[in-house]
Amino acid sequence: MSTVTRYLKPLRGLLLPLLLVAAWEFASRQGASHAYAFVPLSQIGAGLSELLASGELWLSTWASLQRTCLGLLYGVLAGFAVGALMALSKVAERLLAPLYHTLRQVPILGLIPLLALWFGSGEFSKVLIVSLAAFYPMTLNTFEGFSHVELRYREVGRVYALTPLQQFTQVLLPSALPSLSNGVLHALAFAWVSSVGCELFLSTGMGLGNLMMNAETGSRMEVVVIGVLCIGLLGYAMNQAFSRFSRHLLRWRNLR
């Protein structure tokens, strides 16, 4: 492999995005109607400079990230507790599993009108929606992780006469870590999407969803495009960051 090819190989992933950008710019030059739907790149650049200078983009992004992190924390903790309880207690599984599997069939955004009626359209409702979005995948992955711990590991715990707490922390939890990591990764994706989604429905306060709604009302399509790009790029960045952290955390699996 030549030196040029070796340096260009990591850039192959940019080929399709660059082609899409070129097609977008071409479509924007096909008339006034196309220029409204496919905003010219120069206009998007000017809008980005305006949002950065005013600080509106930073504030909106920070509000969405803060809401996502808070809801993710609550959802992951609750999902871990409920999933572990159902996996380790047959009684808890019989009591909680039917309700859990019924509720998780309801789309999260479909609950927004009901939650807004109960709790209003403020910050509490938004964080609750994000928490529920993170709760469902975390619960399922936690349950699967603890339920499928290999029997030989459990037998080792019994041979060494470990207490129930020691068995949980030294046998069950390490064995379930890959599934737990997968649950957090899924919860992060659902939390980010639901955070922006609830901002679109509950248009109060700051956030990228609110920024896009206000821009659509004012026919600022370049701001809508900037909002979509920020949502996609931030979601990808968070996914990649946690994936790398998870691989580092679980690097011991390759040593066994």
Automatic annotation (TrEMBL):
Its main location: membrane. It comes from the Bacteria. It is found in: Cell membrane. It is a multi-pass membrane protein. InterPro entries: MetI-like, MetI-like_sf. Residues 61-242 form the ABC transmembrane type-1 domain. SUPFAM superfamilies: MetI-like. Gene3D superfamilies: MetI-like (1.10.3720.10). Keywords: Cell membrane, Membrane, Transmembrane, Transmembrane helix, Transport. The chain crosses the membrane at residues 65-88, 108-136, 183-202, 223-242. Belongs to the binding-protein-dependent transport system permease family. This is ABC transporter permease. It comes from Zestomonas insulae.
